[in-house]
Amino acid sequence: MVQTGRGGRPRSQEARAAVLHAVDDLLLEVGYAAMTMKGIAERAGVSRQTVYRWWSTKAEVLAEASAADALDELALGSEVDDPEALLSGYLELLTRFLTRSPAGLAYRALLGEAQHDAEVAALVRSTDVLGGSARRVVERALPWLVGAPELESVVARLVGPTFYGVTTGGSVDHLVPRELARALVREAVEDDRARRGR
Predict the structure, then answer these.
(1) What residues form DSSP beta bridges with 4?
(2) Where in the chain is the domain with CATH 1.10.357.10?
(3) Looking at the predicted structure, is the pLDDT value of residue 173 above 90?
(4) 59-196, superfamily in CATH?
(5) Average pLDDT over residues 152-178
(6) Which part of the chain is CATH 1.10.10.60?
(7) Rounded to the nearest 5 degrees, what angle is found at the Cα of 129, between the Cα atoms of 42 and 37?
(8) Cα 137–143–148 angle (5° rounding)?
(9) How far is it, in rounded angstroms, from Cα 43 to Cα 193?
(10) Which residues make Cβ contacts (< 8 Å) with residue 15, sequence separation at least 6?
């Protein structure tokens, strides 16, 4: 039988949520390198055994926390029904996610760790926070893009400039989402004309 707290929710759900919040807080306070499973458990107010029941490493905890938040932070409303508005709206969310969100900071920390840890690299690939969200947006925009452009190519071109600017430590102030979106739509039209030999 699952124990419940005063609010009627299973205590295991409360403990799990506490751990996911704790890992976000610790990342901001001490950074990825100094974070430990023991520290996460202490911050969440649970035992280490409880943390290890669901996750094997701090990277797994951080990846889940980041992915869960990214679902909300990178989601566009269904009322957007224009390709430029869809793509530029997503780019605005992406910039905010990568530069100001704790979940984006967690994602960037995992990317850094993935450069020298094969297990973390596999974890980042399997959660695919950016690729998954960008694909959903591009799939919604595809009906307006002539010539049925290749999905992964459009995803890479959509995410690329912002992702590169942020992860290399450069400024993204010069990247205007509406202009990037307009260029992407224009490139899709030009690619279609080139394929048709016009």
Answers:
(1) 10
(2) 59-196
(3) no
(4) Tetracycline Repressor, domain 2 (1.10.357.10)
(5) 87
(6) 1-55
(7) 15
(8) 100
(9) 57
(10) 44, 46, 50
